[in-house]
Amino acid sequence: MSSVDMETIVSLCKRRGFIFQSSEIYGGAGGCWDYGPLGVELKRNVKEAWWKAMVHDRDDVVGLDASILMNPQVWVASGHVQQFSDPLVDCKACKNRFRADHLKETKCPDCGGELTEPRMFNLMFKTFMGPVENDAAVVYLRPETAQGIFVNFQNVMSTSRRKLPLGIAQVGKSFRNEITTGNFIFRSREFEQMEMEYFVKPGTDDHWFQHWLEQRFNWYVKLGIRKDNLRLRPHEKEELAHYAKGCYDVEYLFPMGWSELEGIANRGSYDLEQHSKFSGKDLSVFEEESKERFVPYVIEPSAGVDRSVLAFLLDSYHEEVVEKEKRVVLRLHPALAPIKAAVLPLSRNEKLVPMVTQVHASIRGCFMTQYDDSQSIGRRYRRQDEVGTPYCVTIDFQSLEDKQVTIRDRDSLHQIRIPTDVLRATLLAKLAGEDFDVLPPGGSLVSSAKS
Ligand code: ATP
Predict the structure, then answer these.
(1) Is 339 exposed, middle or buried (0-12, 13-18, 19+ CB in 10 A)?
(2) What is the pTM of this model?
(3) For 432-445, how does the pLDDT look when each residue is reduced to its tens digit (9 = 90+)?
(4) Phi–psi pair at 73, nearest 5 degrees
(5) CA of 304 to the centre of ligand 1 (A)
(6) Is 361 strand, coil or helix?
(7) Phi, psi for residue 214 in degrees, rounded to 5
(8) Is the peptide bond preceding residue 165 cis, with omega within 30 degrees of 0?
């Protein structure tokens, strides 16, 4: 399990500007969260890492950005209007509401009161399109991004001149009126998903399903999640949707136990068949080589941005003792770290200012940096450790003489001293994975450092 409890992460997120309660000055908005200056960088980095792995690094996947509001028929065809519901029970005494399938006991867990019979509660948020607020104007905030992909399948197929297998990837907001939210950003009412629909020829689906199970599991591992805290759990028969051929959840060992990060399903041809039926449009494809026409099967890896952010925060959190002092460090993968390098002048002495300004300018714009000149250097290192900054660059009076700066590595605490004109290239190399102790021309290892 991650070595930290949820309260510690929630408090760090608030204190350091990762995540705030939504509309906090008005007492909050249930199940909604705002990402602050560091949180928004982390979240963007998670989405970019996903997009890179799913779209840029492959030649069989393209991207899409569909609108949140869609024709309401989409949600009739997909089954959401009929079936996207959870069983809701009310406590007759304290009036609190719960999801019946999440309760272990038959009494209210808050006050012990009697519960009502479960009734089905649809999780889609409704609103109205246009000026008239009547039944005909009802539209839904999308509860998943996937349907935007299915309804654009034909557009993308024909305009991108691709053959199967073809994946269409999308990242965006989804909304679910969850009965009970909780566990910080794990279950909220407004969240972001990273979904990909991979369209394949029927018969090749088992192969691609295995492929995506491996790819998705490894994505989390490559970005630093410990394998012990990650598992692939196959769905039981009762959990499977009637049309699904198979489904696995990628689960992380959160402080509240194993919980879903991502679902990976073999959905057969269900979605395209449904949209064909309801729209009257033929969504089959013709394969030149075999002269066959068929409705593609689809493999769907569907991940949550916010749950990934939470898992990366929990898994990277470490407390240790350095030089008899407690050090909190987020060992975030450099690709995810909100700030890549901090520029720290040893003092505020004005003699240092021109060089510090020049050094900062030489790396700003390449990646996210932060300048900090307040309080002792030790404290400034700790502040950067706590938000996961991989490298701190310090400029001292010696730097004025030898035109060199010191870089400190967050994880090993090693320090190297290098010429300023190779700083940018050196940081880029380290961020891309070069061993910290590899020295650029003119560089040297600083021996005494351990802070
Ligand atoms: P759960 O069983 O936890 O409600 P789900 O099976 O309904 O999740 P999916 O419909 O498979 O979830 O959605 C895909 C992904 O979207 C989930 O794995 C999760 O990461 C994310 N997700 C779904 N609901 C929420 C939510 N309310 N808050 C944050 N992320 C969510």
Answers:
(1) buried
(2) 0.95
(3) 999 999 999 999 99
(4) -60, -25
(5) 6
(6) helix
(7) -65, -50
(8) yes
In testing the pocket of ligand 1, which one of 195, 259, 307, 310 has its CB within 8 Å of the most ligand atoms? Answer: 307
Residues recorded for the chain = 451
% of residues, the chain, pLDDT over 70: 98
Q: Which two tokens stand for residue 440?
A: 């650029």
Distance in angstroms (rounded) separating the CA atoms of residues 91 and 110:
9
Residue nearest atom 6 of ligand 1, based on CA coordinates: 263
Is the model's pLDDT at 429 over the cut of 90? yes
CA distance 82 to 98: 21
1 has a pLDDT exceeding 70: no
Q: Which two tokens stand for residue 302?
A: 């569907």
Which of 191, 217, 259, 267 to mutate to test ligand 1, by most ligand atoms within 8 A of the CB atom? 191
Closest ligand 1 atom to 178 CA: 27
Task: In whole angstroms, give the CA distance from residue 169 to residue 62.
Answer: 6
Least confident of 98-102, 380-384, 395-399: 98-102
Q: What are phi and psi of 236, to 5 degrees?
A: -70, 160
Reduced to 3 states (helix: H, G, I; strand: E, B; else coil), residue 36 is coil
